[in-house]
Amino acid sequence: MANERKIAEQLKALAHPARLRILRFLLKGPSCATLTNREVDISQPNLSQHLKILTEAGIIDFRKIGTKKCFYISKPDFVAELFKLFDNEREKVILEEDDLRNIYGTE
Question: Which residues make beta-bridge pairs with 69?
Answer without folding.
Answer: 64
